[in-house]
Structure formats: structure tokens, C-alpha cells
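Students often ask why inverse folding is considered easier than folding. One informal answer: many sequences map to the same fold, so there is more than one right answer. In these notes we will look at a single instance of the problem. The structure comes first.
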């Protein structure tokens, strides 16, 4: 059952996300609007579009949620693999999505403190990197000038 629904949800989300499906939806709405005078803009005429859009929306919520859950799970697994493979990365972050809100808040506060502590160090590093890059460019420029003069 799960595999069938996964495939169905995947195929359906790909289909309903296409430009052709959007065009069909626009044409249905145009046909409904044009048919208004034919049905004298009756309550039944309005009920048809309301019922149809409600049913489609209700069903699409579940299909979209299923595909988003799968996408989120795949992204988490990919990030977990990157964390696991990176030397120096904190492996405690591998199952971050399973932590409580309080634990996530503590980690967020830890990173905020680290950013504040390292802000001045990062600026100094950036200045040193820019100065080093400028020195490399000056050296290359001088070497080219020397070659032309030689």
C-alpha cells in the first residue's frame, strides 16, 4: 500500500505541477464562467465549481504533503551523510531533525554566541585574505611588466 501510494503521489504531483495541467485548469474555469449565463448564474452552477475545487484541494493536500515528506527525508539523509563524511563535523547533528524544540533552541543559541565571538576574527581574516590577494595580483602585474621590458 505504501509503495503504491508513493508512486501514485509522485506521478500525480509531477502531472499536476506541469504547465499543461495549469492550462487545463484555466480552461475549466473559463468554461465554467462562460456557462454562467446559460445556467442563469444559479446556485447549482456556483455549487459545481465550489464542490469541484474543494474536492481537488482536499485530495491534493495529502499528495503534496506526501511528496514533501519524502523530499525532506531525502534531504536530511543526504545532509546526514555529508556530516558523517566530513572530518571535524559534529556527528551529533546527524539526527538534528529528531531533537526537541528546546534542544534545537539551545543549539541555535550556541551558534549565535559563536557568531558573535567569531565576528571580529572573521573580519580580520577577510582583511588578511584581501591583502594577500592584492599582493599576489601586484606580484603578477610586476612580473608581466618585467617580461615586457625584457
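Output (designed amino acids):
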Amino acid at each position: 500500500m505504501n509503495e503504491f501510494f508513493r508512486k501514485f503521489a509522485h506521478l500525480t504531483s509531477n502531472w499536476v505541477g506541469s504547465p499543461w495541467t495549469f492550462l487545463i485548469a484555466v480552461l475549466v474555469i473559463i468554461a465554467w464562467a462562460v456557462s454562467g449565463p446559460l445556467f442563469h448564474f444559479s446556485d447549482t452552477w456556483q455549487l459545481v465549481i465550489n464542490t469541484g475545487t474543494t474536492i481537488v484541494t482536499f485530495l491534493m493536500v495529502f499528495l503534496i504533503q506526501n511528496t514533501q515528506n519524502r523530499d525532506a527525508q531525502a534531504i536530511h539523509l543526504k545532509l546526514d551523510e555529508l556530516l558523517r563524511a566530513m572530518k571535524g563535523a559534529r556527528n551529533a547533528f546527524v539526527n538534528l531533525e529528531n531533537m526537541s524544540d528546546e534542544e534545537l533552541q539551545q543549539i541555535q543559541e550556541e551558534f549565535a554566541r559563536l557568531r558573535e565571538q567569531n565576528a571580529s576574527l572573521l573580519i580580520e581574516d577577510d582583511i588578511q585574505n584581501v591583502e594577500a590577494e592584492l599582493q599576489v595580483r601586484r606580484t603578477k602585474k610586476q612580473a608581466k611588466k618585467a617580461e615586457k621590458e625584457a
